[in-house]
Design a protein that fits this description.
Chain lengths: 327, 360, 327, 360
């Protein structure tokens, strides 16, 4: 067990993946000598060579499209998209090829591609560097979409993504890259919890708060604050947005009677909509309030001086909890 | 642009069936090999004709005809070694034939019983790709994999004249050039992208596109199976030897409609078709074989008979293609278990169980 | 008033748009001499010339990207994407440019671009020709997303889309192209109903069914069938999926107490999720059953022989209604 | 690839400040005009330096430096007529200067008070585009609009060496060639795309890309303001006259970091920078002006003084840039009323009204 940052945990996970399977390849812009703009691939090209840690031309569709071909050849490409807002040029390859190849070939062609995307806001960046595109991918059959909230999960879940025979969109909450936590770098992958299962991080009785990625810390802080007001929040880290671990949330809501879903992405057709619809269907008689959602607005991500106004924070989470309790 | 392909066109067999020489490219085939190419061309045309007929009879929802492009496909397909890998569009029935893919399995997609139809690994022949240009990047990625495996193999990637406008195709050119990947880009310039003539995609001959990316481009008479074979063999050999990508523009003509859904009389004149009929890819081989005595009437009729047999096989086989069970749509969405898909499948089964007989 | 098909009504709408504003341009693949693969632009190039009805190179990103430039020059481009599954190469231009230019320029640059997309299944087509991508666009702030269900709406709404100063994704239910209906080709646009308002097509008391585009006819047929069983369905044609006319649905649900949402797109994170979440929030005490959703499965669109099993039909709508009533 | 740009490089002023001649391109400038260019170069460099400093002081979140690319930007920007239209990336502060865009308004984006910063219509200067390559298609679309308006105007589109790999940039080449659109593609090849050297994007000189699409490409010394001016003027004139697109590759060097967030010591050697310092775009003009007597010490110090003033203006102005009110994020999402945005704005206001003072 060592205390380390999420960034370092991700680096260690990639190193382990490269070591343990020589069909694993890394590809992306600036991931070689530079180690990526966030240094997640720091040192890997030096140790594994240019043929396994590949600086690609500046073309995202090219990255994903060649990854498909590499996968057909039996490789396991792990690609880095430099920032969330730059994944869209690759959208066609992701939606029409990466996601559908396996089904199209009746299982003959696997697409064990991991698409790493630093996502979300809160780092004071310029436009296109703070987006949360998860709903686009979660709506797409054939993809899996997961996001760690802490260094330990980052370490384990990234390796699980690389080991998966399905394509996984791996969303890295960039503003949590420098958060520290305990990581057991010798952790045995085989006995690790499935990345598609949600984890209850804090038990509570007044209401359930479901979140993922960057919002987990925010929600845990909200729960701590709520406690002083005598409100007991159960906080669930969804970890996976596709598939969604609905049973874990449903079981919690059956106990608490209330659910608030929190994410940075726009509320409108965000992951919270799906969770709200499903939980309501399954907990119709246990819900004491409608599922409330806290998230981004139906606006482009604003200039960074306004991002604090845009992003859900502790107070907005508590405001929603209050509204749920007031029902 | 020159309607006849211009002086840069590589040709080894004229439309009149005359064998000509080219300073750079040649093939040296035995009579048997030549007869084999003829047989390929005839059978491939017959597959196409039969599938077109099956569509007219309502057995297929659609068919993308290759009429006129037989030589481009057979010539390039026969240039491949078994361990090379081919990435087709939706029209490469002739290439599929040369790879040994069962003709019947090509029909599944068009009959609507599958989105695929064969196992790409068996014959190193990828599934048809419908989104224009997407497969070019797959081809380059596969070629990058070959490099990493240190293998002496090459990849061939098919696409049309229209496809050259897509970003992905040009990104494929960039990646292949930068990595010097062993890939041959084989563009069948059949002069049309549905209703749009070549001028809507380019103002210079397409083979010249390669120059802009720093690798060789060459224009070949796409209706000349020998020239296509020679040029493709050379490009594949170069790729295998580490000389990187080549763009081949096979100058040809889509003699039929874009697909059976299309009506070309709306946008092109009959005279063009007539002109291209004189350059028919099969006729010239037949004349050459006959004139040189490499084949006799018995041979030609044996090929005809074989074609007829193949047609019957397709006709019967098409109708017998098994319909997938409804629940098969849930089968391969993911390689690993997925709770949502499982739940939806269960719900689907519950729902259908209500009805007499139910769905499987 | 004349009886005509939706295809012809759309053609007439484009003709009117070209006639009434010389800044209107049409661009797309095969829209000239061929008149588009569905003949929606039939005859328009002949009458308005190649400079206003433009056959484009085969490149969707190119079509949308040049449309942005044309809009900046003061034109009103109406672009055709040949089939739903071919819009993804243009996704970056749509999401990062078309949708955001107006906000980025603080209102200086308008993007009056109409993106026409024949969408949905039911015509026995091969892969990529039957998809329902509306959720991707509806989740994207800056876009409007509408879909007519009948020839009259097609005629009016397409003109409204072209006249809008916002970018509009105009989804044409291709399997209804040949449905006939009355169209008043002299209809006055100024007095027409807003395209962003839903329309109650049939009053009912037992439950509300909300749908749009190709599913409207299916739901109306379901309502007719239900009647014989003594079930009275209120059918709402949403017409717009972004914005969603929530008030109209809420008012209806307050009366009926039940809601079923129907669309062809995958249920998971489909438009129904958003409508369910919102309606539940606003009608928490009037709902007698959770909002139920009928839609596509979380699978790629299947080969055409299975599309009847994939697509919601009358029976599946009624099954959901039954389940809602049984709650 | 030739590190010095090779023999094809158009140059009119050597790094030593010597005026040389070129068979095809020339400019004939008055001393005043030459001094004007010098002034532009110095002021632009100063804007850049000041903005970099402001970033270090925490006043800007980020800055994309143009150090070393002043001549490429000033030369091409000054070639434009007021009614021509320019499409920049995020680094064209020098072009912005030549268009008359207020330098202060360039800072807003980097300070995080806006995603834009100016009204593109006022100076025919589009907003900065951050997604690599997207603006190239906008430029072509705008040029198609000029054609339809029958106007005698041209468009210039800026992008980097890295951008040439993007599908959109290549699609822009296709569209402009097919429609013969009046657009000049101006590629500043500063040798780097963040940490990736040119070799990751191409294996031949970039100006040759144009050949593959059927329009002229030319490589100019991007550190030579005169050559850039001459070449760009010619290309713009050709565009206005209906001769269609040209690709200009301005061969230059990014002397600073990619942005203030970048650390180039991780990926490039100091020696390169030293070599390029000898080719500084400003120094050669200064030497030329001094040597020919076109400018004296008083002139040079007046420009310095002006630069100093501009720096103060930027410094003060930056800190005074108004912060947008929080509700402004709802303002221009749509041009027409939108119920969801209105409701969210109302909810936002309700929420903030709870707190003392509230948000506006
Ligand atoms: C991305 C995309 N856009 C549009 C289409 C519709 N479409 C199918 S074939 C075709 C024309 C293709 O022309 P070309 O590349 O010349 O190939 P050909 O059909 O002539 O063999 C078009 C536009 C598509 N399949 N994919
Ligand atoms: C589509 C996209 N991918 C990635 C990025 C991140 N990025 C910003 S600048 C840059 C390098 C650009 O290099 P080049 O085109 O040479 O321009 P330069 O910065 O050198 O002026 C990258 C990769 C981006 N902005 N857009
Ligand atoms: Mg073609
Ligand atoms: Mg660069």
């Amino acid at each position: 067990m060592a205390v380390t940052t999420m960034a370092k945990a991700l680096n260690a996970a990639l190193r382990r993946a490269l070591e343990s399977d020589d069909r694993v390849l890394l590809m992306g812009e600036d991931i070689g000598k530079l180690g990526g703009v966030f240094r997640i691939t720091d040192g890997l090209q030096k140790d594994f060579g240019e043929s396994r840690v590949i600086d690609s031309p500046l073309a995202e569709s090219g990255i994903l499209g060649t990854a498909v071909g590499l996968a057909m050849r039996g490789f396991r490409p792990v690609v880095e998209i430099q920032f969330d807002g730059f994944v869209y040029p690759a959208f066609d390859q992701i939606v029409s090829q990466v996601a559908k190849h396996h089904a199209r070939s009746s299982g003959a062609t696997r697409m064990p591609i991991t698409i790493r995307i630093p996502y979300g806001g809160g780092i004071g960046a310029v436009e296109h560097h703070s987006e949360s595109p998860e709903a686009y991918f979660a709506h797409t059959a054939g993809l899996r979409v997961i996001s760690p909230s802490n260094p330990f999960d980052a370490f384990v879940m990234l390796q699980q993504a690389v080991a998966s025979d399905d394509p996984v969109v791996f969303l890295e909450p960039k503003r949590r890259y420098w958060d520290k936590g305990e990581v057991d770098v010798d952790a045995d992958l085989a006995s690790a919890m499935s990345p598609y299962r949600a984890r209850i991080l804090r038990d509570g009785t007044s209401a359930t708060v479901a979140c993922y990625g960057p919002m987990v810390r925010t929600c845990l802080e909200a729960a701590t604050a709520a406690e002083t007001d005598g409100v007991s929040l159960e906080v669930i880290d969804l970890r996976s947005v596709s598939p969604l671990d609905v049973p874990t949330v449903v079981a919690s809501v059956r106990r608490t009677g209330r659910l608030v879903v929190v994410h940075e992405a726009s509320v409108f057709l965000g992951v919270g909509a799906e969770l709200a619809a499903r939980v309501t269907e399954e907990c119709f008689y246990s819900l004491e309030a409608p599922v409330l959602r806290v998230g981004g607005y139906h606006t482009p991500y604003p200039p960074s001086k306004l991002e604090e106004d845009y992003l859900p924070d502790l107070d907005r989470v508590l405001d929603a909890v209050d509204r749920a309790l007031a029902f | 642009m020159t309607a006849d392909g211009g002086p840069e066109l590589v040709q080894l067999l004229t439309p009149e069936g005359e064998r000509v020489h080219h300073p750079e490219y040649d093939v040296d085939l035995t009579p048997e090999e030549l007869r084999g190419l003829y047989r390929d061309l005839v059978l491939v045309r017959r597959i196409d004709a039969e599938a077109t007929a099956l569509q007219r009879q309502g057995e297929l929802g659609l068919w993308a005809q290759l009429l006129g492009q037989e030589a481009a496909q057979v010539g390039s397909g026969r240039a491949l070694r078994p361990d090379d890998y081919a990435f087709p569009t939706y029209r490469e029935h002739g290439v599929a034939w040369t790879r040994g893919v069962q003709p019947l399995s090509l029909l599944g997609l068009f009959r609507g019983v599958t989105n695929g139809g064969w196992d790409p690994r068996e014959r190193n022949f990828a599934l048809y790709t419908i989104v224009i240009g997407d497969q070019c990047l797959h081809a380059v990625g596969y070629a990058m994999g070959i490099q990493r495996d240190g293998a002496e193999q090459a990849v061939i990637c098919y696409f049309g004249d229209g496809a050259t406008s897509q970003g992905d195709v040009n990104e494929a050119f960039v990646f292949s050039a930068v990595y010097n990947a062993p890939v041959v880009f084989f563009c069948q310039n059949n002069q049309w992208a549905i209703s749009e003539p070549l001028e809507r995609q380019t103002r210079i001959p397409l083979y010249q596109r390669a120059q802009g990316f720093g690798f060789p481009g060459i224009r070949v008479d796409g209706n000349d199976v020998l020239a296509v074979l020679a040029v493709t063999q050379a490009a594949l050999a170069a790729a295998r030897e580490g000389q990187g990508p080549t763009l081949i523009e096979a100058f040809t003509y889509r003699m039929g409609a874009h697909t059976t859904s299309d009506d070309p009389t709306r946008y092109r004149v009959a005279a063009d078709l007539e002109a291209w009929k004189l350059k028919d890819p099969i006729e010239r081989v037949k004349v050459h074989l006959a004139r040189t005595g490499m084949a006799d009437a018995a041979f030609f009729s044996s090929v005809e008979a074989e074609a007829e047999e193949l047609a019957v096989h397709l006709r019967d086989g098409c109708r017998a293609l098994p319909e997938p069970p409804p629940t098969s749509m849930f089968d391969h969405v993911y390689a690993e278990p997925h709770p949502l898909v499982s739940a939806e499948r269960a719900e689907f089964e519950r729902y259908h169980a209500q009805f007499a007989g139910g769905a499987s």
